[in-house]
Automatic annotation (TrEMBL):
Residues bound to Mg(2+) 2: D190, E226, E230
Enzyme kind, highest EC tier: oxidoreductase
Pathway annotation from the record: Amino-acid biosynthesis; L-valine biosynthesis; L-valine from pyruvate: step 2/4; Amino-acid biosynthesis; L-isoleucine biosynthesis; L-isoleucine from 2-oxobutanoate: step 2/4
GO cellular component: a single term: cytosol
Binding residues annotated for Mg(2+) 1, in chain numbering: D190, E194
UniProt superkingdom: Archaea
Cofactor remark: Binds 2 magnesium ions per subunit.
Record's keyword annotation contains Magnesium: yes
Binding sites annotated in the UniProt record for NADP(+): Y25, G26, S27, Q28, R48, S51, S53, G133
Protein name: Ketol-acid reductoisomerase (NADP(+))
Organism, as annotated: Halobacterium hubeiense
Length: 340
C-alpha cells in the first residue's frame, strides 16, 4: 500500500519564502490562492487583461497581475486556468520561467498528452485536490483538509517532492492526507472515472432508468424521485461506509434485488465498453478528439450539452425541486432514511 503524507511529513521552508503565482481565479484558483495567502505564503494572482475574475481576487485582498508578470516574479507557477486554455497561457509565460522555478498543475492532461512541453531546468509537479475548489476553500476555513494527489513529472532541483508537499500543506491538503501518484496515472484514471462512472456512466444509467419507467406508463414524477433524487441518499451511504454500509442500510428486499439484478443491467458488455473507453484514454484518442473539438469551436460539445438539457427528466426535476422544500434547505446532519 502507498504511503499517505500528512502534516508531519512537511517542511514548510520549501514554500514559505517563495512567491507563488496562481494563474486563474476560478474553482481551484481562488481556493489555492486564498489558502496559500492565509498560510503566510506570498501569492500573486495571474489574470488576463479585462478578466472577469479580477474584482473577486482583489476583493479577497490578493495582488493581481497579468499571467506573464505574475510568472516573472514567482518561484512557483500554479497553472489553474481551464485545461483547454493552458497551452496558450503557457506559451505566454514560458519565457518568464527561470531555472529552478516550478510549474505546478492540478491535473495532468496537458503534460501527459504533450500539449505543454516544459523546459528541462524547471520542476514540474502536481497537487490535485480530489474535490471542487469551493470545498478546498471551505474545508480550509473550517480547519479541515481536502485529500489530494501529489505527482512529480520533472525534478530539476532535487526538491520537487518536498516543495509540492509544502504547497499541499499551504492549501490545507495534508490535514486530510496526500497520496503520491504519477501524471500518467492521475490523468488516465481521472478521465476514465469521469467518463465511465462519475459523469458519463451515472447520467446514462439515470436516463435509461427514467425512460424505462416512463415508457412503461409510470409517472415522470415517480420516475424522477426513484432514479435521480434518491441516488444522493445511496451515494451518501457509499461515501460514508462503502458498498457494505449501503447494502446494510437498505431493506433486505432492495439488497437481494440489487445483488441479483445489478450485474444483469451493468453486464459484461458494459465492462467491455469500459475497456474500450479506457483504451481511448490510454492511447490518446480521446485527448486528440477533445483538442480537435476545441480547435473547431466545440460544435459537438454544444450540441450534446443542449440535448442533455432538453431531456424530459430535466424539466420534471426543475418543477419538482420548485414544489418541494428540500432543494433549498441547508443540509441536515442526520442519517438519511433509505427505502430503495
Ligand atoms: P476554471 O474554469 O474555474 O478557471 C477559470 C479561471 O480561468 C478564471 O479565473 C478565468 O478568468 C481564467 N481563464 C479562463 N480562460 C482564460 C484564458 N484564456 N486566459 C487566462 N485566464 C483564463 O478552472 P478549474 O478551477 O475548474 O480548473 C483549473 C485546473 O484545476 C484544471 O487543470 C482542472 O483540471 C483542475 N481541477 C479542477 C477541479 C474542479 O473541481 N474544478 C478539481 C481538480 C482539478 P476569466 O475571468 O478571465 O475568464
Ligand atoms: Mg476528477
Ligand atoms: Mg477531471
Amino acid at each position: 500500500t502507498q504511503p499517505v503524507y500528512n502534516e508531519s511529513d512537511v517542511e514548510r521552508r520549501y514554500i514559505d519564502d517563495k512567491t507563488v503565482a496562481v494563474l486563474g481565479y476560478g474553482s481551484q484558483g481562488h481556493a489555492h490562492a486564498q489558502n496559500l495567502a492565509d498560510s503566510g505564503v506570498d501569492v500573486v494572482v495571474g489574470l488576463r487583461e479585462g478578466s472577469s475574475s479580477r474584482s473577486a481576487a482583489e476583493a479577497d485582498g490578493l495582488r493581481v497581475a497579468t499571467p506573464k508578470q505574475a510568472a516573472r516574479e514567482a518561484d512557483v507557477v500554479s497553472v489553474l486556468v481551464p485545461d483547454t486554455v493552458q497551452p496558450s497561457v503557457f506559451e505566454a509565460i514560458e519565457p518568464e520561467l527561470d531555472a529552478g522555478d516550478t510549474l505546478q498543475f492540478a491535473h495532468g492532461f496537458n503534460i501527459h498528452y504533450g500539449q505543454i512541453e516544459p523546459p528541462e531546468d524547471v520542476d514540474v509537479t502536481m497537487i490535485a485536490p480530489k474535490s471542487p475548489g469551493h470545498l478546498v476553500r471551505r474545508n480550509y476555513e473550517a480547519d479541515e483538509g481536502t485529500p489530494a494527489l501529489l505527482a512529480v513529472y520533472q525534478d530539476a532541483t532535487g526538491d520537487a517532492r518536498d516543495e509540492a508537499l509544502a504547497y499541499a500543506d499551504g492549501i490545507g491538503c495534508t490535514r486530510a492526507g496526500v497520496l503520491e501518484t504519477t501524471f500518467q496515472e492521475e490523468t488516465e484514471s481521472d478521465l476514465f472515472g469521469e467518463q465511465a462512472v462519475l459523469c458519463g456512466g451515472v447520467t446514462s444509467l439515470v436516463k435509461h432508468g427514467y425512460e424505462t419507467l416512463v415508457d412503461n406508463g409510470y409517472s415522470p414524477e415517480m420516475a424522477y424521485f426513484e432514479v435521480l433524487n434518491e441516488l444522493k441518499l445511496i451515494v451518501d451511504l457509499m461515501y460514508e461506509g462503502g458498498n457494505t454500509e449501503m447494502w446494510d442500510s437498505v431493506s433486505d428486499t432492495a439488497e437481494y434485488g440489487g445483488l441479483t439484478r445489478g450485474d444483469e443491467i451493468v453486464d459484461e458488455d458494459v465492462r467491455e465498453n469500459m475497456e474500450e473507453v479506457l483504451e481511448e484514454v490510454q492511447n490518446g484518442e480521446f485527448a486528440r478528439e477533445w483538442i480537435a473539438e476545441n480547435q473547431a469551436g466545440r460544435p459537438s460539445y454544444r450540441q450534446r450539452r443542449q440535448a442533455e438539457q432538453n431531456h424530459d427528466i430535466e424539466a420534471v426535476g426543475e418543477r419538482l425541486r420548485g414544489l418541494f422544500a428540500w432543494a433549498d434547505e441547508p443540509e441536515v446532519e442526520q442519517e438519511p432514511e433509505v427505502s430503495a
